[in-house]
Amino acid sequence: MFSIAVVALAATLPALEASSSKFFQTATQAEFLKGDVENLSVDARGQLTLGPATELVFETAAPFVWAVAAASDGTFFIGTGNEGKVYRIDAAGKGAVFFDSAELEIHAMAPAPNGGLYVGTSPDGKIYKVDRNGSATTFFDPDDKYIWALAVDSRGNVYAGTGDKGVIYKIAPDGKGLPFYKTKSTHATALAIDKAGNLLVGTESPGKVIRVDPNGKGFVLLDTPYQEIRGLRFDDKGQLYAAALNGRPAGSSASGGGAVNDQPSGDTGRALVPSVSVSTEITAIAIVDGSGAQTSASPSRDDRRTSKGAVYRILPDGLWDLVWESRDDTPYDVIFDQSGAPIIATGNKGKLYRLEGEPLRPTLLTRASAQQVTAFYKDPRGQVYFATANPGKLFRLSSEHASRGTYESDPSDAQMVSTWGALSWRGTVPKGSQVELATRSGNTETPDETWSSWSAAYTSPDGSPITSPKARYLQWRAVLTGKGDGPVLTSVTAAYLQRNLRPIVRAITVHPPGIVFQKPFTTGEPDLAGFGDQTTPDRKLTSAAQTAQGASTSAALGRRTYQKGLQTLAWRADDENDDELVYDVLYRREGETEWTPLRRGLDEPILVWDTTVVPNGTYFVRVVASDSPSNPSATALTGERDSAALQIDHTPPAIVVSSVRTEGARTMLVFDVNDADSPVARAEYSRDGGVHWTAVFPKDGIADSKSERYELSLDGEIGEIGITIRASDSMNNTETTHVNAPRGRK
């Protein structure tokens, strides 16, 4: 035996930097479970191995096989759906119709005396007693619509779980029956009898497990957040396993369909919660996507509304544990292998899980060639049989490993048409075993006839160049062959290179003049975000790490403050390849055609410009984003965006007082404010030396131009102190002037 442990080689992508390569990897159980297996197992450590061989025992024409029972001579009985037939199958796998009911569904069967069979049918639920020759009589005919489960105690009494009133009937061997227990649920869906003669009941709407003593006294052992208890099984230690599931979306009617949420969907294209609504006579089946199903429990109870199902273990003293739960697979039944390990039957991908270890951990044992595994049976020799739906079949699970198994990965999405690199894998290959991988590619999310054919086999674990054509999606297939335990595949890695796309500068924000942001968590002197080294425009900033290419907000930039002469520019840029970006910032004055570099090689999407070094005027800023850190110079791309016009003005407005005159008890003052570059923003006056300021409004009522005239009417005379006038332009440049009282006045 030899061991192999190899990683994917980015070197198989010629003339490309390693930082540009990306990888698809499958290495954990969760990742392997996304794919499709045939004759392979996936253990809790994420190891792909040859699984147990499965043998087809019998195939029906019906879409559903719901129930399995066996006679003492090794004969099998299976009950079907949509045709309401019971088939008898001999030890050689030859089968024939044993009983054909007038109803369409057979969900429950139990052995009857002298090699006969009790059969529970739905709708218009009845229980038939069929003798060993196939002759049937009506054994019990309640008013209830559905017969979901049957159990026979040591005295020959038959218990029937029904719907849609959730009543349990106890029927004597002579066929006389009465209500034994009312569950107060919509349906009684599962039954089992313990060694003490207690009846265990699983219910639907809500999903509970109830222990009912021989006197008909009930005690709730488990109140789950799931909608239905689908199956109940005791192991050799007296521990009860309960399969719970979510089936029908909350609020849908139970009438007309009852607990038919345990019928699988016929849709092979999607993994739906197996929920179907059935008309009163079950003449049509409509698929319902129950992925958003709500449970009967409050969301605060483990919040398992998004889980499709779970398996609980209830100890003889009543304590219970949640031993398995899945968001992808719905449990239908539980059985135990020869070592006592639980095996779980699931849908909608026909997976069988085995729980091993302590605490119990799941292994994907195998996958049936059907959508749902609906029921188990274990014969006296310990061989496990399982029934399926879509299609309706009966299989035997072997204790021997399959000699060949295949795995098809879930298609991986490169987000765009890409170049494929190397395919490599890790694993162990004993002598006489083999692992072969192949790939195919396409541009549709689901593989179809437009995809490429499967490639020739890649047999080298060190990494072989992927020969499938360039495309957006890639899928790989592994074929494991061998004897005994066979090979082990632990991980598969595929390298790819996206087509380089141009960065996009989405937006440029020009903050108000003088607004800057103090970086959070700084020490010493305040550090302004984006200020950097204002004296070396060709030098790349290295004082801050590369930041995410998100929108720059004041909350993200730091504490907002003001510093005259500084102009903050922030931008938002992204790259569909997720490449690292650097930025050049350039500017030009209105009327000029050439752009002047302001700063190069920025790694933050923000810059503070000291505008005091350039003359007044209208300017534009250009931000150029480059993906050069992640690509060779020959293939690096840039994207750019120009800002809106921004005004730079360092000169304050001029105040010209044209007249001061007295009109009675009032003083009239007329003055003009003129600015060469920016609109006048405001004017104010103070009569107390600048302690208090009062706004003055332009004669035309709005400050919107570079020249504004103001007329100020004051009560009384100006006085000895005089009046101070202050005017500011839109760039916060401010000028003041003082007006004294006219000569000859005090």
Question: Could you describe the 3D structure shown?
Answer:
With 746 residues, the chain is mainly β. The model is unreliable at 1-19, 248-303 and 535-555 (pLDDT under 50). 1% of the residues lie in helices and 50% in strands. It is elongated and about 135 Å long. Strands 1, 2, 3, 4, 5, 36, 37, 38, 39, 40 and 41 form an eleven-stranded antiparallel beta sheet that branches. Strands 46, 47, 49, 50 and 51 form a five-stranded antiparallel beta sheet that branches. A four-stranded antiparallel beta sheet has the order 6-35-34-33, with no helix packed on it.
Proportion of beta-strand residues: over 45%
Broad shape: elongated
Broad structural category: mainly beta
What can be said about the biggest beta sheet?
A: 11 strands, antiparallel
Tell me the Rg in angstroms. Answer: 40 Å
* Strand elements, count: 58
In DSSP terms, counting alpha (H) and pi (I) runs of 4 or more, how many helices? 2
The averaged pLDDT comes out at 85
- Alpha-carbon distance between the termini? 114 Å
How much helix is in the residues? under 10%
List low-confidence stretches: 1-19, 248-303, 535-555
